[in-house]
Design goal:
- With 342 residues, the chain is mostly helical.
- It has two domains: 97 residues, Orthogonal Bundle (DNA polymerase, domain 1), CATH 1.10.150; 170 residues, Intergrase catalytic core (hpI Integrase, Chain A), CATH 1.10.443.
- 54% of the residues lie in helices and 4% in strands.
- It has 16 helices and three strands.
- Helix 8 runs antiparallel to helix 10.
Length: 342
């Protein structure tokens, strides 16, 4: 049945008018029913909001790009840039990037810039400043990520790295401990830099790793490594809330220590400098050995990879490795019995 086209009765119109007057509502008010949107801020204003809302890892990843956005577009509103302007900005950053020996044509620069911009717009949409679909950065395609050049390091080469670390530098004890820690745990740099004394469980030879994505996991280590960590804490005074890895002065190390280690080793071993070997290569080495020896499920847990929607079906839920299986892998890797190994 189609709606009636008959005009309303005069009495009905008058009754409606009187009701609106009593409520203090005008006919024009009824035409503007959408709630007013907040004023769109500038990039300078809103980037500060986003900086305070993200974690340290995100800030470290995107902070430099937000600074460049602030410098170039600081006075512009979030809803002003177009996809074409974003592409132009990305090409500018690509052309003016710092050229590094391990650079890959600037694709990483473009990828991180677009991701940093998308992060800002996601927060703006969540705050109701912009509507869904008003994120121009989503209309700019990221460059296809290239396959990593990292791979497992052979046993002989890994031995060379350890020998140079032990024989050179201003603190070989620290550097050797760091390399062994990464070799046994296959952790990322963040896992070592954020390790606290409270993250050590000496009785069960476990360390708690806190890595990217605010993930935490307990990882088995050998009794020898655990003793070395406890000795390191005892010999280098610091507060209980300070990180485990620190200089003799008690000052915690930073990512710069890794740069120093691998630059130094690269001077003694040219292949390290040529291939840009880093701590992440050690992670690849350990995880490759675990996967080849114990299979995918244990290697996945050893790596600390979180569950993902890309996993092949629900089977992944039922093949999670146990802590005892990880301990057995560490025991085989180090040649030492582990208290949790079955």
């Amino acid at each position: 049945m189609s709606p009636s086209t008959n005009p309303p009765a005069a009495a009905d119109v008058e009754a409606a008018r009187m009701l609106l007057e009593r409520l203090g509502v005008s006919p024009s008010d009824l035409l503007n029913t959408a709630p007013p949107r907040p004023q769109v801020p500038t990039f300078t204003e809103y980037i500060q909001v986003v900086r305070g809302a993200v974690g340290a890892g995100t800030l470290r990843m995107y902070g430099s790009y937000w600074k460049r956005i602030d410098e170039r577009w600081g006075s512009r509103r979030l809803d002003e840039p177009t996809p074409s302007e974003i592409k132009q900005f990305a090409e500018y950053l690509k052309a003016n990037r710092t050229i590094r020996r391990n650079g890959r044509g600037g694709k990483s620069t473009v990828e991180h810039f677009i991701s940093a911009l998308r992060c800002v717009y996601r927060h703006a949409i969540a705050d109701g400043i912009l509507a869904e679909g008003e994120n121009p950065a989503l209309k700019v395609e990221k460059p296809r990520r290239q396959a990593s050049n990292r791979r497992a390091i052979g046993d002989a080469r890994l031995q060379e790295i350890n020998e140079v670390a032990a024989a050179t530098g201003d603190d070989p004890e620290l550097d050797c401990l760091l390399i062994r820690f990464h070799t046994e745990t296959a952790c990322r740099r963040g896992g070592a830099l954020t390790l606290l004394p409270a993250d050590l469980d000496p009785d069960q030879c476990l360390v708690r790793l806190k890595e990217k994505g605010e993930t935490e996991r307990w990882q088995p280590v050998s009794p020898t490594l655990m003793r070395a960590l406890l000795r390191h804490i005892d010999q280098r005074p610091a507060a209980p809330t300070d990180p485990v890895f620190r200089y003799r002065s008690g000052k915690p190390i930073t990512r710069r220590r890794y740069d120093y280690i691998w630059t130094r080793i690269g001077k003694e071993l040219p292949w390290v400098a040529i291939q840009q070997i880093s701590a992440h290569w050690i992670r690849h080495t350990t995880l490759t050995w675990v996967e080849r020896t114990y299979g995918y499920a244990i290697a996945r847990a050893f790596a600390g990879h979180a569950d993902s929607a890309t996993e092949p079906g629900a089977t992944a839920t039922y093949v999670r490795a146990t802590l005892q299986e990880l301990a057995a892998a560490v025991a085989a890797l180090t040649g030492e019995p582990h208290p949790l190994a079955q």
